[in-house]
Design brief:
Layout (H helix, E strand, L loop, with lengths): L2 H19 L3 E6 H7 L13 E9 L3 E6 L3 H8 L6 E5 L4 H12 L4 E3 L7 E2 L13 H23 L7 H14 L3 E9 L2 H4 L13 E10 L2 E10 L5 H19 L7 H14 L12 E4 L20 E5 L2 E2 L2 E2 L2 E5 L5 E2 L8 E6 L2 E6 L2 E2 L1
Parallel strand pairs: 1-5, 3-4, 5-6, 9-18
Antiparallel strand pairs: 1-2, 2-3, 7-8, 8-9, 10-11, 11-14, 12-13, 14-15, 16-17
Helix pairs in contact: 5-6, 8-9
Length: 367
């Protein structure tokens, strides 16, 4: 699928959405939506904001990008230049010109946007559903991203030294990611007792003595891959091994039940039942278990009774955890057993079974 064919597929999805909701057009400014519709182009400047510096407008008749004269040259030359997309620019110091462009594009018809700017109606969350089924080109990009995110985290984790601070590990992870042209979206690092106390451990100056948990989210082309790995200096204690094996067993149940057509609430219930059978009945209540992913870290977090279904060629990232242990990778769901997009390379794994099926999950890496 060439870039223009992918763009045409995205435009067809949006135009069906417009027809179903009697809309004239949509303005897309969020980085995730801009990257999706343009096949991986970037409208960002600030990585700490989901709002980008350019807006895509799609109607039944046209697609164009609105950007100020700072951003427009790069967008034309390095982002959308291969696509049949018009770039409309305006002086950065004349916002009223931008507003005039927006009014002219809206044409007095009903329009919506993903930010609600300039008085437009805000898009409903169901717009995200247009992004669920990945194109062949997106799957190829996702596989590249997943493999390289895995390589990045393996390089960093296998080089960890005792008495190295959490924030030093985080810095090396960010460094290796950026070297690979991957933008970090999440870096969580916990040493020793912090793995027990916090499910979302922001890196601190605490130095690792025995065990380290590293959580990484990396983005390229707008897509996000998520994964978690644990390392231990010397043989792990039986209690930690029990927790880790339990988390991996739960993860196996989640992954092996993740197929196109499956209800997400049903999949979650399988994990809850597995927690119960392993003697950790309440742990699922202490941290969300993950959910569908792609251009957002999670489009939604699956909760009990959720009736939404997994789509064909949809990415999912489950992340079951038990205090001190966690299992997380990004997978691609089809009618067949899910494919792990963030596979281990030089990392040891163990097979875990569920309902007569089996899948490899990462071990604790012993240093």
């Amino acid at each position: 699928m060439n870039p223009q064919d992918e763009l045409n597929e995205k435009l067809a999805r949006i135009r069906r959405y417009l027809d179903a909701r009697n809309l004239h057009g949509v303005f897309l400014t969020r980085q995730s939506n801009f990257s999706w519709v343009t096949g991986g182009c970037e409208n960002r400047v600030t990585i700490t904001s989901e709002i980008g510096a350019a807006t895509a407008f799609v109607s039944r008749e046209r697609i164009c990008v609105i950007a100020n004269n700072i951003e427009a040259p790069r967008l034309r030359q390095e982002e959308v230049g291969e696509l049949d997309v018009e770039v409309l620019d305006y002086p950065w110091y004349q916002e009223h010109v931008r507003d005039k462009i927006i009014r002219e594009l809206a044409g007095g018809w009903g329009v919506a946007s993903d930010t609600g700017f300039t008085g437009t109606a805000r898009l409903e969350r169901d717009f995200d559903e247009l992004k669920y089924t990945l194109t062949d080109a997106e799957i190829d990009r996702y596989k590249w991203l997943g493999r390289n995110c895995s390589l990045v985290i393996e390089k960093v984790c296998t080089d960890v030294r005792q008495e190295e601070a959490e924030n030093e590990v985080a810095a090396r992870l960010a460094h290796e990611a950026m070297k690979a042209n991957i933008t970090p979206t999440v870096i969580l690092v916990a040493a020793d007792d912090r793995t027990l106390r916090f499910r979302h451990p922001l890196p601190t100056e605490k130095k690792v003595k025995e065990v380290l948990m590293v959580v990484f989210g990396g983005r390229r082309w707008g897509l996000i891959a998520s994964l978690t790995r644990l390392v231990h200096f010397g043989k792990p204690a039986p209690g930690l091994l029990k927790k880790h094996e339990a988390a991996c067993t739960v993860d196996a149940a989640l992954i092996l039940n993740s197929r196109a057509g499956a209800t997400t609430g049903h999949i979650l219930q399988k994990s809850i039942d597995t927690y119960q059978s392993l003697g950790f009945p309440n742990e699922w209540q202490l941290h969300h278990q993950g959910g569908p992913t792609g251009y957002d870290g999670r489009y939604y977090r699956v909760t009990p009774g959720d009736e939404r279904t997994i789509q064909h060629n949809q990415a999912v990232a489950w992340n079951p955890s038990i205090a001190g242990a966690k299992s997380e990778d990004t997978i691609l769901c089809t009618s067949e057993p899910a494919e792990v997009l963030t596979p281990c390379h030089q990392w040891p794994t163990t097979q875990y079974e569920h309902a007569g099926m089996a899948i490899s999950r990462p071990d604790i890496f012993v240093l």
